[in-house]
Write a structure and sequence with these properties.
Length: 333
């Protein structure tokens, strides 16, 4: 049984480059991924950071769709807590009408930034009326279907235009609870293995989703290929994430201790817990990466891997995508 390869791109801004450079690189990678037979190309949402250029994935998706013709393009993902579910449904219905059968709506729960940007995004929200994530996702799902049921405060509103093929729907998460929520709403599920690579948690999340749907979720992970194993491992280095948990229970993964301290400062919290995490990165030759993906496929039945390349330099990311494409056919066979 074969599996598909897809790409998640965050539009990193390398030293000495500009945001315009980074976005042009993302479009170039999407075009290359299409030429090489990748299945999807997703772009991320990050706010108020000098390191990443993609703050509005729906805008970037539209641009990529206009520069490609076959590959599916989507969000990995829209940070739903900041937005009106109705507006998200309208936006992705419009994208799906522009490119029928090629648009994915991936939704995430994380803030995609530090508290100052979250505050700015939600400044005009009525906090007393803001629903939790499950309610927001349920509302979004209804707008993507026929609209809210009779008796709902927003009944009667339709998310137009109505596309000939509705956008694909993916919940991005890293727990059995997320898998259960995706299954309950009839959404596809993409497990965020690059943030939570614990084998037991992966196994439990997959088992829950499979029990409810009979399907296996996609698996997102860090992977990077170079000409030699030593070169790949040296270029990736030691990847670290820091989980910061505030006194009020809020938690988020950030890339450095400094970012964790800044998150707490912006949140107005002087006391917090910090957990250093070392995400698993598949780094080596294309054959090394292929062998590990094959092992994950055999262990869990994964049918699609969404690859996040943890290197900022465009030439290295482009080379990695090409090397993995070359190694894909023996693996699929």
């Amino acid at each position: 049984m074969s599996y598909s390869l897809s790409i998640l791109d965050k539009s990193p801004i390398p030293p000495g480059a500009t945001a315009a450079d980074a976005l042009a690189n993302t479009v170039a990678l999407a075009k290359l991924a299409e030429q090489l037979g990748y299945y999807r190309f997703w772009v991320a949402e990050h706010h108020s950071t000098p390191l990443l250029a993609s703050s509005a994935p729906e805008v970037l998706i539209s641009h990529i769709l206009a520069h490609t013709s076959r590959i599916r393009v989507g969000s990995g993902g829209v940070m739903l807590q900041h937005y009106s579910p109705y507006k998200v449904a309208e936006t992705f219905n419009l994208l799906a009408a522009l490119a029928p059968g090629r648009v994915d709506l991936g939704v995430g729960k994380a803030p995609g930034g530090l508290p100052f940007s979250t505050r700015a995004l939600q400044h005009y929200h009525d906090a007393a009326r803001k629903p939790d994530f499950t309610a927001q996702l349920t509302e979004l799902n209804a707008f993507l279907n026929e609209g809210q049921p009779e008796g709902h405060p927003l009944a009667g509103a339709k998310a137009t235009p109505l596309p000939p093929i509705t956008p694909g729907r993916f919940l991005l998460g890293g727990s059995p609870d997320s898998a259960r929520l995706a299954a309950r709403l009839g959404w596809d599920f993409a497990y965020a293995g690059h943030f939570n690579g614990d084998p037991l948690n992966i196994q439990q999340s997959i088992a829950v989703y499979r029990q409810w749907t009979g399907k296996v979720p996609a698996l997102a992970l860090y992977a990077f290929a170079a000409e030699t194993r030593e070169q790949a491992q040296a270029l990736v280095g030691e990847l670290k994430l820091f989980k910061v948990t505030l006194e009020d229970g809020r938690s988020v993964n950030v890339p450095s201790r400094e970012a964790a301290e800044e998150f707490a400062r912006q949140a107005g919290s002087s006391r917090y817990q910090l957990e250093e995490k070392h995400p698993h990165v598949i780094a080596g030759t294309a054959g090394d990466v292929r062998a590990e993906l094959d092992s994950l496929h055999q262990s869990y039945g994964i049918r699609e891997f969404i690859i996040d390349i943890p290197v900022a330099q465009f030439a290295l990311r482009r080379a990695s995508i090409a090397l993995l494409a070359e190694a894909r056919e023996p693996l699929a066979a």
